[in-house]
Amino acid sequence: xxxxxxxxxxxxxxxxxxxxxxxxxxxxxxxxxxxxxxxxxxxxxxxxxxxxxxxxxxxxxxxxxxxxxxxxxxxxxxxxxxxxxxxxxxxxxxxxxxxxxxxxxxxxxxxxxxxxxxxxxxxxxxxxxxxxxxxxxxxxxxxxxxxxxxxxxxxxxxxxxxxxxxxxxxxxxxxxxxxxxxxxxxxxxxxxxxxxxxxxxxxxxxxxxxxxxxxxxxxxxxxxxxxxxxxxxxxxxxxxxxxxxxxx
Amino acid sequence: xxxxxxxxxxxxxxxxxxxxxxxxxxxxxxxxxxxxxxxxxxxxxxxxxxxxxxxxxxxxxxxxxxxxxxxxxxxxxxxxxxxxxxxxxxxxxxxxxxxxxxxxxxxxxxxxxxxxxxxxxxxxxxxxxxxxxxxxxxxxxxxxxxxxxxxxxxxxxxxxxxxxxxxxxxxxxxxxxxxxxxxxxxxxxxxxxxxxxxxxxxxxxxxxxxxxxxxxxxxxxxxxxxxxxxxxxxxxxxxxxxxxxxxxxxxxxxxxxxxxxxxxxxxxxxxxxxxxxxxxxxxxxxxxxxxxxxxxxxxxxxxxxxxxxxxxxxxxxxxxxxxxxxxxxxxxxxxxxxxxxx
Lengths: 248, 342
Hints:
The complex is a heterodimer.
Chain A: E1 3-8, H1 12-25, E2 28-34, H2 37-47, E3 51-55, H3 63-69, E4 75-80, H4 84-92, E5 96-99, H5 104-117, H6 125-132, E6 141-146, E7 149-154, E8 160-164, E9 167-172, E10 175-180, H7 183-189, E11 195-199, E12 202-205, E13 209-216, E14 219-224, E15 229-232, H8 234-244
Parallel strand pairs in A: 1-2, 1-3, 3-4, 4-5
Antiparallel strand pairs in A: 6-7, 8-9, 8-12, 9-10, 11-12, 13-14, 14-15
Helix pairs in contact in A: 2-3, 3-6, 4-6
Chain B: H1 8-30, H2 38-55, H3 59-65, H4 73-101, H5 112-176, H6 178-196, E1 204-205, H7 206-224, E2 228-234, E3 242-243, H8 249-259, E4 267-276, E5 279-287, H9 300-313, E6 318-324, E7 327-335
Parallel strand pairs in B: 2-4
Antiparallel strand pairs in B: 1-3, 4-5, 5-7, 6-7
């Protein structure tokens, strides 16, 4: 059975090389080629390839963001020139990768491995993404998909996040976007100087808080710029006090 | 070994000065008591001074062992006074030997006290000069090391992605278009070769900087194909201006990496340079995707250029950046200096 593969790389020559290696290796059918992240998300959704050769650095969306946006994630072979941190993450999570430039033999080996892994569930892409970013680097934007449309939310425009079962609702600009990710995973990637987990189910952008009001006898709510009221837990209040000062 | 032996001209100058000092000493010895005639005074002073010339090189070793900043003042004084006394004793002993050989007898005694004083002072003077010499050596070494570190940092920053991606492009071209593969190898070699000698040089001409940037762009143009467009406007008189090496290339690299490479359709890099009011002015403009995440490394190349220009030119150099929508602009002004041919 032929492997149905998709090539994603912004460089013409890099795509050409993967196509040539695939033809020579045999048993691979290239279903499409994409030169940027948006096209890749669309093509993966429509063509459902068995395998994706995915470049890491690309215009619009990088390789990790592409992977976060497709469900279920296909088998992936990352193709990259050099990225210390990403490489370590690939190793740890048994995700295969090719370092440019690579030998045809190495390419064949990667194909063989991909075949044996077909059908087995891959690790959640958000976890791989978190591991592949350099330590200390804070998330600067969040990508979500509404139907077939990809939305990029810069984190400074994110007002608050609400946990909903396996999903999180990202509230930005009076709109809400759903994404499959746990609130704890997201919390780890956000800058604690700008965002605080003020409740088991809520993360809030500190710059959006207008005031803290008493709610019941011993609970409080945070009132945001857009009027939203977010419950504050006891440990959440302690966190707010440590960041914003005692008088909140 | 003492650094003065490394350079024959310095060594010769040093001994000429010592011989001249010997002449002056003989005049001194001849005048006061009138005990010695000028021939005798000269016969004592010249060998004495030439011998002392060697003795006065020994503080090099002592001074290196006792750095001014980190040695106790008491220890410093004790060691150098002790050495000075030893040197003076040698100096007087030699004077006595010569006096004996010339049969001066008691007539030498009257000049011994001024000789003791002079020997002591000459030795201490050489100690002081050696500390100056050591300080000069240290500052020169520090300057060299700082420059090397800067260039190493810059080169380390240039290398990995660019190199591996270029090699990948060449790998692809070897079967599809061997002629272009060869072309790219040569462009890459041109670029690497022109960065090689830069570590030893303090300044390069603006034309050399342009050539380096051009070699870099020739490689990237094959990699990115029609996505990368370059427009170059350089006034001819800029070419001879002296600038620190790797002043332009990091800016061009940024323009490719954070600019054109973030755009699906690619973009254009405009490079302009002209001379205005005694300054070399440079402007690099590129398109970029405002939605692209800010790379972690952003500004590293730019900061490095800014720092090096500041160290070199102080307030007379200026680096300004500006974001206008999807355009990023860097403007640089440095003093227009050209090499003086004597």
